[in-house]
Predict the 3D structure of the following.
Amino acid sequence: MMDYSKVINKATTEMKPSGIRKFFDLAATRKGTISLGVGEPDFQTPWPIRQAAITALERGKTFYTANAGLAELRGEISKYVNDRVHTKYDPDNEIIVTVGGSEAIDLSIRAVVERGDEVLIVEPCFVCYRPIVELCGGKVVTIETKAEDNFRLTKQELEDKITEKTKVLILPFPNNPTGAIMTREDLEEIAEVLRGTNIIVLSDEIYSELTYGRDHVSIVEIEGMRERTILINGFSKAFAMTGWRLGYLCGPKEMIREILKIHQYAIMSSPTVSQYAAIKALNSCRSDVKEMCDEYDMRRRYVVDGFNKLGLDCFTPEGAFYVFPSIKSTGLSSEEFCEKLLFSKNVAVVPGNAFGESGEGFIRVSYAYSLKHLKTALKYIGEFLNELKSGEV
Amino acid sequence: MDSLLKLLKRNARLSNSELAILLGKSEEEIASEIERLEQEGIIKGYSTILSESAALENSVTAYIELKVSPKAQSGFDEIARAVGQYDEVENVWLMSGAYDLGVTVKGKTLLDVSLFVSQRLAPLDGILSTATHFVLKKYKDNGVDLSDEIIDERGLISP
């Protein structure tokens, strides 16, 4: 008989399943659920991109590419990054095409973090940073952002958490789940703290195209930051290409050379068809991104207004496609709120604490849905809140 | 205000207050913008898009190609207006290519539409020939996808 308790290593068995997973399992048991829980665009990938993939298949582009990705794609990424965040990366030595932003995050953390290193994680945030850091033996030090700071990272809070063991700062803006962004001024302050140190910034900018009212600014644009930053981005959110699994990372060649070794051994090369599609995305479909962004923007205004009218305080997010209303006024915990809402109205939203303890008291609501869907869901949430008040639920 | 028109084309029943929220404007701004668009004739009207099963009253649509001889003075305009005067006619377009006017006609039955074409349209002065194509099924109408259910392929919850 196999003793499976001894098969899986300790680091893996100790890894906690994501809080989202738990709620997903609960929601999956129900039928006809109206979900506001999805973290991916509702748009299909723009047709020219899909067409480019079909053409690639027809032409027999079914082989591995260079480890770092197709040279043409790296060239396009280099141009695109320079257009968007005014920073040059050498396509030959400073860019790796990865299997989604996720692989880029994994690679960067694995290449940098060692046992005993402290990694600063700005929470609430996407769920994958902590388990990967812990898998590498790193120690997670959270920096909790607050609603009163518009969920931005402040200089003071960063300074307070830095020790001589601090190796990495993970900077996830525009932020999932809060929708917060960092302005140039905010980033200047952060850079001021970091410039004199040896701390590496992992800037996860996967939502960079989805900002409202002002353009995204990357920390790599700030003086002295390019040399200490790994810039992570991808095609999933901007071009509605989640299922294609394609992202990239950019950084100084001294780091990229080392990171590439892990990618080489673990992945070989990212999906070839997706890479051809991505070339098309970058060279011909940027206007589609703008259109999708305008659409999200309308929904954003609608949902923020909706929650505020329902009496749930909702900070106006300036990025991504989430709102993060506070449910503290109901007296319920995030998980209680979400479970009750699911059971009484069949509406699924994600408890804020799934994104870190500082998300407690909030819920994440995705507005990557049609207006009609959002309207229906808001109506049910309104009914739910009334029933809560009258003690019916 | 392109985005206002876009929203109205998709759903003309959005209220001014909803439009105001969606576009980040005041209700007054929306009201006056719509009034302007109506007055300038940019918005010609608002209509209801019925599913085929609900549209029992007029359930047959035909697309008709008309070849006509233009008049010396008025060109195609006079004959196009004459065609457009019938209630059965929904659209009249002057076309480039192999024929002159493209017309859509609605009727209760195939016979109705056939009779309309042969007894009303064809005899009009200036009409040289007609070719009638009946619509078998509509998948998308006025930019609206008519399929009953749009399936969300995404999972219920993802990070």
